[in-house]
């Protein structure tokens, strides 16, 4: 390893200049992150050097986490659980999605997070159950489904949790049935997590529960994904995904169903893949998955 001689400027350009001065004939780059402007700058300081695409090699090296990294994710999950638990103890009827999302993000920081791991999603009534819903000024009403997805960033590591609740009254029959279905799908996905399990098989375990109940149309494109320094990393738990899980890989399992005009359910956990001898998948996000009427 060699430390670049001076701070400031573009470190990639400085590295290329150093490689040129030492007679290197190639330099590895990540083409999916390399801008046109930076490519021109590299070519100007190192015209003889061939740029070789590194592909996703760095991302692949990050898939398996060590125990120190998992500890950061565990603490982030505890912070997210705390923030969500406090929100559930407050009065929700009449408050807007946007206000609740801002309050959750404040609570994350109050409990020690660097900040939110991603923009917090709060969705009520007909918006509930949508993946990546951006909060609006819609107010929470009695009888609504309320779906929340949030995450904490802690020492650079990001995790997420998603839960769905009913507001102010006992849930309707259709809400109970839909919730029980998504819960069963999420449990099937969690139970499929094991070293050596194919990514697509984990997705299939959750997806077929929803398919068999008639919800094949409109399902989200993946059941889960890796987390770490980014909130969406490899592996992707999706129908066409290639590869198999290793131990010590943190992933989400987050199936959901959204019924246009009515709302829906999402249940989202962050877990770490562990062998059966170590107790199976480690659940990091522990807020109850019981259908609560708040």
TrEMBL record:
InterPro entries: Creatin/AminoP/Spt16_N, Creatinase/aminopeptidase-like, Creatinase_N, Pept_M24, Peptidase_M24B. Residues 113-137 are annotated as: Disordered. It comes from the Bacteria. Coiled coil: none annotated. SUPFAM superfamilies: Creatinase/aminopeptidase, Creatinase/prolidase N-terminal domain. Residues 72-274 form the Peptidase M24 domain. Pfam families: Creatinase_N, Peptidase_M24. Residues 14-64 form the Creatinase N-terminal domain. This is Peptidase. It comes from Streptomyces spiralis.
């Amino acid at each position: 390893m060699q430390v670049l001689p001076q701070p400031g400027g573009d470190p990639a350009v400085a590295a290329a200049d150093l490689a040129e001065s030492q007679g290197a004939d190639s330099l590895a780059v990540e083409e999916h992150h390399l801008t046109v402007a930076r490519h021109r700058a590299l070519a100007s300081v190192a015209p003889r050097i061939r740029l070789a695409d590194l592909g996703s090699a760095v991302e692949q090296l990050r898939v398996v986490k060590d125990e120190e990294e998992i500890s950061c994710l565990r603490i982030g999950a505890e912070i997210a659980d705390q923030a969500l638990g406090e929100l559930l103890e407050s009065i929700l009827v009449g408050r807007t999605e946007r206000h609740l999302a801002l309050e959750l993000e404040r609570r994350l920081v109050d409990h020690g997070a660097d900040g939110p791991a991603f923009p917090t999603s709060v969705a009520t009534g007909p918006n509930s159950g949508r993946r990546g819903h951006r909060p609006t000024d819609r107010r929470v009403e009695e009888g609504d489904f309320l779906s929340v997805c949030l995450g904490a960033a802690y020492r650079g590591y990001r995790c997420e949790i998603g839960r769905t609740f009913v507001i102010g009254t006992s849930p309707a029959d259709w809400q109970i049935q839909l919730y029980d279905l998504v819960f069963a799908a999420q449990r099937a996905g969690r139970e499929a997590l094991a070293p050596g399990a194919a990514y697509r098989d984990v997705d299939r375990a959750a997806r077929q529960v929803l398919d068999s109940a008639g919800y094949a149309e409109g399902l989200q494109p993946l059941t889960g994904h890796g987390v770490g320094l980014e909130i969406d990393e490899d592996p992707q738990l999706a129908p066409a995904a290639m590869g198999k899980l290793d131990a010590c890989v943190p992933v989400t399992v987050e199936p959901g169903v959204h019924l246009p005009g009515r709302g829906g359910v999402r249940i989202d956990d962050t877990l770490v893949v562990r062998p059966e001898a170590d107790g199976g998948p480690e659940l990091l996000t522990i807020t109850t998955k019981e259908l609560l009427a708040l």
